[in-house]
Amino acid sequence: MLTSLVPRPFTGSLAARERAELASLALSLGAPAPTMCAGWTVKDLVIHLLVRERRLVAKDRATAELASRDLASLVAQLRAVPLLLSVVDPVLNGMEMFVHHEDVRRAQPSWTIRPLSSRDERELWLSASLVGRIQGRRVDVPLVIASGTRRTVLRSGPSPVVVSGPVSEVLLFLSGRVSVASVAFDGPVDAIEKVKAASLSL
């Protein structure tokens, strides 16, 4: 099993905890381990995160340079958040680190859905609502997301498709991880098929 079934206590930002857990998991699995990102290994995903955070220009060259290094040094760099980024990391990277952590976890045979603290659920639901409003433009049907008592209209209209499930699963669905997101659909059958077929990858 890749994680405990007990919600983690709050010890720092979601972004920091997901970053640390992703780094540890990457090292334990090794560079060639698969991920849910098509064609990417664990090493490829770590390189993507480093380039995203540290290289705003010449990304292809930066990717090639990082690819020549071993996984341990790449993970060490991923753990060391740059000073300027550390100020905004908790705000910007919670969803990013969570989704990519799940990209690694769910490509392994022993994954389970992780229980989340109420604080983490609130943060990820806000992310799902914001991302969902963007993704909703790609779906030509009324669309609502729901989790427990939470409910957000992504695209208004009559007879909406309601996508429901744990917060983590709704977010992963909206992030394009359709094959591993445990969500339920309610609404007109033809509209549900349109939602399932939509290109939602971020």
UniProtKB/TrEMBL annotation:
InterPro entries reported for this sequence: CHP03085 (IPR017519), DinB/YfiT-like (IPR034660), Maleyloyr_isom (IPR017517)
Domain of life of the organism encoding this protein: Bacteria
Matching NCBIfam families: maleylpyruvate isomerase family mycothiol-dependent enzyme (TIGR03083), TIGR03085 family metal-binding protein (TIGR03085)
Protein name (Swiss-Prot/TrEMBL): TIGR03085 family protein
